[in-house]
C-alpha cells in the first residue's frame, strides 16, 4: 500500500482521522484495533514532533499485524499452526483464531499447543473438561443407552458458537483427536471378567472389574479424517443393575 493511498490533501484517511482532541491527549492512540490520530496544539507547534512520521509508524504496525496476526482478539490467526509459523517462540496457551478468515468479531478463543501446533477446543468452555456426576444414572434392564439422547447427560455441550468456524478448522486440518474418560463402579466399559465384549461401551474402554470400587478407562480417538470429530454422544450398556454407576468426562478436541 502506497503512502499516497492513505494520505489525502485534506488529512489522513483509511486508518483514522485527524481531529481536535480535548485535554491534550497523546499524539496517537490505538484502541480496539482502530488507529485514531489526534491533533494537540501543543505538540503540533513543536517542530521536533512529526505527526506524519507517527502515523506512518502506526500504519506499518497495523499492516504487519494484518500480514502476521499475533493471536489477539483484534488480530486472530487462522489456526494455531499459522500462529506458530509466524511466531515460533510463542508458548502453549490461549489465543484467538479465525478459521473462516472473515471479520474478527466471530473469532474463537482456543488453546494452542507446542510443539504439535495443535488447535484445541473445549466442549463446555474454553478452559475446562465437560464432566458429569459419578452416580446411578439409570435403573432397569441392561441395554445400550445413549448418554445424550436417552439419558440427557450431555446437555449444553458447545465447542464453538459459530458452526462455520468448526467446519473451516476441519478443512484446514490433517488430523483430529479427542479423549473421553469413562468413570465406572461395577459397570463394564470394555471387556468383562470372561474377556467378552458384548457389554462394552461403544466408544469407551475399561477393564471389566466388578469390585465395588471406582475405576476409569480412557479412550482417545485419533483420526486422519477431522470431519469425524467432535464426539457428540456415547452409548453405555452395563448400567442398569443395582450398584452400577458411572460418569463421563469429555476432554478437549484438538486439530493438527
From TrEMBL:
Entry superkingdom: Eukaryota
Broad class of the protein's primary localization: secreted
SMART domains: COLFI (SM00038)
UniProt GO molecular function: extracellular matrix structural constituent
Single GO cellular component term: extracellular region
Pfam families reported in the protein's UniProt record: COLFI
Domain Fibrillar collagen NC1, residue spans: 50-256
UniProt subcellular location: Secreted
Keywords: Collagen, Secreted
Record keyword Secreted present: yes
UniProt entry tagged with the keyword Secreted: yes
The protein, known as: Fibrillar collagen NC1 domain-containing protein
Source organism (scientific name): Pocillopora damicornis (Cauliflower coral)
Amino acid at each position: 500500500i502506497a503512502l499516497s493511498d492513505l494520505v489525502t490533501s485534506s488529512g489522513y484517511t483509511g486508518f483514522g482521522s485527524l481531529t481536535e482532541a480535548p485535554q491534550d491527549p497523546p499524539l496517537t492512540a490505538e484502541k480496539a484495533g482502530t488507529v485514531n490520530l489526534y491533533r494537540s496544539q501543543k505538540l503540533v507547534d513543536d517542530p521536533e514532533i512529526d505527526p506524519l512520521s507517527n502515523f506512518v509508524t502506526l500504519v506499518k504496525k497495523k499492516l504487519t499485524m494484518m500480514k502476521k496476526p499475533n493471536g489477539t482478539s483484534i488480530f486472530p490467526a487462522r489456526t494455531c499452526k499459522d500462529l506458530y509459523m509466524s511466531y515460533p517462540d510463542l508458548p502453549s496457551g490461549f489465543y484467538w483464531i479465525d478459521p473462516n478468515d472473515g471479520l474478527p468479531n466471530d473469532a474463537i478463543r482456543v488453546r494452542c499447543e507446542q510443539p504439535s501446533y495443535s488447535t484445541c477446543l473445549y466442549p463446555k468452555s474454553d478452559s475446562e473438561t465437560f464432566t458429569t456426576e459419578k452416580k446411578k444414572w439409570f435403573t432397569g434392564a441392561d441395554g445400550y443407552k445413549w448418554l445424550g439422547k436417552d439419558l440427557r447427560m450431555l446437555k449444553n455441550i458447545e465447542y464453538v458458537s459459530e458452526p462455520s468456524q468448526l467446519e473451516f478448522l476441519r478443512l484446514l486440518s490433517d488430523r483430529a483427536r479427542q479423549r473421553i474418560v469413562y468413570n465406572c463402579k461395577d459397570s463394564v466399559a470394555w471387556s468383562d471378567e470372561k474377556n467378552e465384549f458384548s457389554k462394552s461401551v461403544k466408544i469407551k474402554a475399561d477393564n471389566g472389574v466388578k469390585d465395588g470400587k471406582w475405576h476409569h478407562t480412557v479412550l482417545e480417538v485419533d483420526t486422519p479424517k477431522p470431519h469425524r470429530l467432535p464426539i457428540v454422544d456415547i452409548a453405555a450398556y452395563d448400567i442398569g443393575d443395582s450398584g452400577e454407576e458411572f460418569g463421563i468426562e469429555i476432554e478437549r478436541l484438538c486439530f493438527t
